[in-house]
Specification:
The chain is mainly alpha-helical. Helix content is about 65%, strand content about 5%.
């Protein structure tokens, strides 16, 4: 049964291989002139013994092999590699600016689908873009004398971006509350129409678009809050925990992974 598990064989293939192999016969304690059990015999024995007995035999075999120093179970070596995600190099300012733009776009999707149409939503994308461009301009400064001043300006502008992102997330939460209320009203109306036998295909598709936009905005607000929190932490002089750090808006599971490569000291993706 160990050979069957190890080499992923069926019962008939297992019996045929054991019959043809001297090494496998010795492993199974079957003499050269002895007969190999029939496949149906192995099936019946396995069913009769059950999984608990097989597991117990395997544990006993492992303990005996360890005691005889055939196996060394005190050390384990694992090799990992990085599966990169389709994300651009993440910076705090870049992620904040993207989050603000996507909040504005998703809010317009919600209102276009008929949700919270009277809720005022301010588009802060231009203000975020100006601050992101200002950060890039400051970082490209080659003046050594003004380097400290440029870094201070970058930190100040990043803080302003974090303030904008928090305000945009707060506005988005208010929009979400009103949009969910509108979605509940639309679903109640659809239920009433269904009771009368009326058909509302276009309205149903519109409700579907509204529901999807609401889900997208909820995920986006959660990501924005997380990115803002880790930006505040970095501005305070602390390094965010890499195991929970958010590096992408569309891929929440991507993480920064340092493998020590010369060309790419830090990669972003998943460890495999």
């Amino acid at each position: 049964m160990f050979l069957k598990f190890r080499y992923r064989l069926g019962y008939e293939s297992l019996c045929r291989e054991v019959s043809d192999s001297i090494t496998w016969r010795r492993f199974c304690r079957i003499p050269l002139d002895g007969s190999v059990p029939h496949p149906t015999t192995l099936m019946k024995l396995t069913t009769r013994c059950g999984a608990a007995a097989v597991d117990g035999l395997n544990e006993a075999l492992l303990a005996k092999a360890t005691e005889a120093k055939v196996l060394r179970t005190t050390k384990l070596r694992a090799d990992t590699t990085v599966v990169p995600s389709n994300v651009s190099y993440p910076t705090d300012s870049g992620l904040l600016a993207k989050a603000i733009r996507r909040i504005a776009v998703t809010g317009k999707r919600i209102q276009a689908a008929g949700g919270a149409t009277r809720t005022r939503v301010r588009d802060r994308s231009r203000a975020a873009g100006r601050r992101a461009h200002a950060i890039g301009f400051k970082l490209r400064s080659r003046s050594a004398a003004g380097r400290d001043e440029a870094l201070a300006a970058v930190r100040r502008t990043t803080g302003e971006l974090a303030d904008l992102a928090e305000t945009a997330a707060t506005d988005a939460e208010r929009l979400l509350a009103n949009a969910k209320h509108a979605l509940r009203r639309a679903r109640a109306k659809a239920t009433a129409l269904k009771g009368t036998g009326a058909h509302d295909g276009a309205a149903g598709r519109r409700r579907g678009r509204l529901a999807r936009a609401i889900d997208d905005l909820e995920d986006l607000v959660t990501a924005t809050r997380q990115i803002t929190a880790q930006t505040r932490q970095r501005l305070a002089g602390q390094t965010p925990d890499g195991a929970t750090r958010r590096v992408s808006l569309h891929d929440p599971d991507a993480r920064p992974i340092a493998k020590g490569r010369l060309g790419k000291p830090v990669e972003f993706g998943h460890k495999a």
